[in-house]
């Protein structure tokens, strides 16, 4: 298990480091807090991956971020079938890009109890879910968001603070502080 954890850490380091180094050269820097909405941050009790994704997808529908709940959910699940988006450290970043969307959005699920089995790279149960959606035509922006989010969750202090949060505004505040320190 220790070997898998080191491999996972190395992969996350390589991906986030390479992407940030190269993508920061292309256009504006990504500010994760600008993609967050308190109505899209859920404290959940779900114990399985698909139910957690379904609940976050439904919140996206209610907020108006998506219009077709089933097609977005199906796209996320199809992506999960390719390879798990459980990146380790108790975090999953499921995502889907579809032609229907004009901009990117992030919904967050926090599961403080046992965690959710996600077939994570390091075998850990997932307690933080960052569901990303957006336009399929803007790969560069998507990679910037993914890179910035990956770098932020590697920050153990931020990750632990998000897990200890009791409300959505607190989580947004934590990411706002992180964004301002990293700019």
UniProtKB/TrEMBL annotation:
The keyword Transferase appears for this protein: yes
Domain (PTS EIIA type-2) ranges: 33-178
Entry superkingdom: Bacteria
Secretion signal, residue range per the UniProt entry: none
Database matches in InterPro entries: PTrfase/Anion_transptr (IPR016152), PTS_EIIA_type-2_dom (IPR002178), PTS_IIA_fruc (IPR004715), PTS_SugarTrans_NitroReg (IPR051541)
Cellular component per GO, a single term: membrane
Keywords noted in UniProt: Phosphoprotein, Phosphotransferase system, Sugar transport, Transferase, Transport
GO term, biological process aspect, one: phosphoenolpyruvate-dependent sugar phosphotransferase system
Database matches in Gene3D superfamilies: Mannitol-specific EII, Chain A
Pfam families: PTS_EIIA_2
Gene Ontology molecular-function annotations: protein-N(PI)-phosphohistidine-sugar phosphotransferase activity
DNA-binding is among the record's keywords: no
NCBIfam families, A to Z: fruA (TIGR00848)
Protein name: PTS sugar transporter subunit IIA
